[in-house]
Amino acid sequence: MQTTYVHAFEEVFGIVLGIIRSVFINFRSYQFDAKEIVITVFNYGGCTNTMKAKTGLIALLIVISSFLFLKNIPVCGQAENRELPAAGNPDATGSVNTIDALTGVIQVIRELGKEIEDKKTKLHEAETHEERSEISKEIDKLNERLESLRVNFEEIATGLDLETFYAKPQKRFDWKEEIQTLIGPIINDLKSITARPRLIENLRTQVDYYEKQIFLVRNAIENIHNLAAQVKGENLKNQLIDLETEWYNKGKQISSQLTVAKYQLADKLSERKSFLESSKNIVQVFFKSRGRNFVLSVLAFLFVFFLLRYIHRHIYRGSFIHKTVASSFYIRLAEVLYYVLTFVGATGALLIVLYICGDWVLLGIAFIFIIGLIWAAKQTLPRFYEQGTLLLNLGTVKENERVIYNGLPWKVASLHLYTLLVNPELKGGMLRIPIRDLKDIRSRPYHPDEPWFPCKENDWVLLADGTMGRVVTQTPETVQLIIGGGSYKTYPTEEFLKQNPTNISRNFRVNVTFGIDYQYQSISTTEIPDKLREMIKAGLINEGYGNDIIKLTVEFKAVGDSSLDYIILADFSGQVAKDYYKLSRIIQKIALNTCNKFGWEIPYTTYTIHTAPSQSQQRISVPIQPTTDTAKVTETSS
C-alpha cells in the first residue's frame, strides 16, 4: 500500500512538472495552446485511468487559471521601452480648433512681448528709483504670464503635460522618505488611474475662475471708460486711457487663457469612453506594471499553499500510518511542522516571484510586512504555544475525550486546526470549531455508559415547569416538544437542560395519596391496604393497563388531622408514558369506587375553633366539601 501511494505521489509530481514546463515554454513566446497543454498533462502524467486523469485535470486547472489571463503580455510588469505613438490624422474640426487655439496664443504672446519691450523702454527712461522698482515688478509679472503662455502653447502643440514630463524625483536620504519611496509608486499607479477625472475637474475650475476674471475686467474697463469720458483735464485723461489699455490687454490675456482651458476641457471630454472601456483601460494600466507582479505573486502563494494542503490531505487519507497511529506524538509533531513549512513555502514562492520580476518596491513591502508579522508574533507567542500543545495532544483538551462546550457534552472526535466535536444523541450534532476556542476548556476521559443527552427523539419527558411532552427534535441549538392538543413548544437546548428533564419513556411511577375516616382505625393497617391494592390492580387491568404494570404498592402513610392517609405507588413501563396524568386520575377514581363498595367514609375538611380561656374548648366540625386528600384548615381566635 505504501508503494502504491509513493507511485501516486510521483505521478502527481510528474504531472505538475510537465504542466509547468509546457506553460513556461509557451509563456515565453506569449502563446497559449490549451490543447497542447492538455496533451502535455496526459503525456507527463501517464493518465491511463480515471483516478490519474482526475488528478491531472485538477493540477491543470490550478496552473492554467494562474497564467491564462496574462496572454500576449510580458510575464512580469517591468519597465518597458515604449515607443511614441504614431500621430493619427485628426478630423477637420479638431484640427481647426487646435490651430485656432495656437493662433490665439501666438497673438497674445506677441502682444505681451511688445508690452514687455515698452515696459523696458520706460524702465530706461525712468528717473526715480521708485518708478524703476515698480516697472521692474510689472515686467516680472508680464514675464511670468509670457512663460505661462509659452507653456500652454507647447502643451497644446505636443499634447503633453509638461509639468509631469519635466518632473524629477527628489533625492533625500531619510527613513521617512525611503518609506514614501516604497509606497509612492503604488500611489502613483492609483493616481494614474484617476488622472483623467481629476484633470477634467481642474480644467472646469480654471474655466470658472477665468470667466469670473473676465467679468471683473470688463467692469473695470467700463468704469475706467466712464471716468475718462467725464474728465476734462488732458493729463488725467491720458492716464485713464493708458490704464484702460492696460486692463484691455489683461482681459485679452485672460481671454486667451480661458480659450486654452476650454479647449483642453473640450478635448478631454471628447475622449470620454464608456464604463466598459474605462474599466478595460484601468485593468490594462493595472496589469502593465506592479499589479501584474502582485497578482502573479499571490497566485504563486495560493498555488504552493493549496498544492501542499492537497498533498497533505491525500497522504492523511491514504496513509496506513495515519489510520493506525494517528494520535501518536511523532505523527502530530510532523503535522505541526508540515503546517509551518506550508506557510513558509508559500511565502517563499511569493518572494521568489517578486524577485524574478525585479519588482523591488513590492519585494521591499513584502519584507516589511513579514517583519511586521514576526514582530507582532512575539506578543501572541504564548497563544501559539498553547495551540501548539493542543495540536500535539499535550494540552488541556485531548482527542477522544469528553468536553463541555456551550453547556452541552461533546466528544473530541479529531484535534486539528479546526477541531471536530460530536454528540451522537443530537440531530446535526457535529461542530467544527477553531482550535483557539479550546484554550479555556478542559476535557476528561469518559465511560462508555455515560449519556450524551438526557433523552432521545420520541421520548416523553417531564420538565421542572410542569410541561410534559414528546421530544420531536433535538439539535445543538433547540429542543422541540409536542404537548397536549398537538401544539409544539420549543426550548433553547441550554434552557431545556436547566429544566432538569425527567425521562419517563423507560419506566415511571405514579404517586397518589388517599385518606379515609378515623372510624376504620382497627382495620387501617391490615385489611384496607390489601383490599385497596387488589381493587386498584383489577381496575387498571380493566382499563387496559394490565401488561404495563410493573409494580403496585399500597402502604399506610401517616395519621392526618382528620383522616388516615395511604400512599399508592404504581410503577408502569414507558409504553404508556403519554398517559402519565391520566393514570393518576384513574387510580384516584378506582380508590373512590373501592370506598363506595366497602362503605368506607371519606372525611370532610373541618375547622377547629378554640373558645375563650374561661370556657371549655370545643371542637366543631363544619363540612366544607368532600375531598380525597388530607388537607385541613385550622383557625385560632381568642
TrEMBL record:
Residue runs in coiled coils:
109-152
Output the superkingdom of the source species: Bacteria
Which parts pass through the membrane?
12-30, 294-312, 333-354, 360-377
The secretion signal range is none
Residue ranges for the region (Disordered) are 618-638
Q: Which UniProt keywords apply?
A: Coiled coil, Membrane, Transmembrane, Transmembrane helix
Q: What is this protein called?
A: Transmembrane family protein
Protein source organism: Candidatus Brocadia sinica JPN1
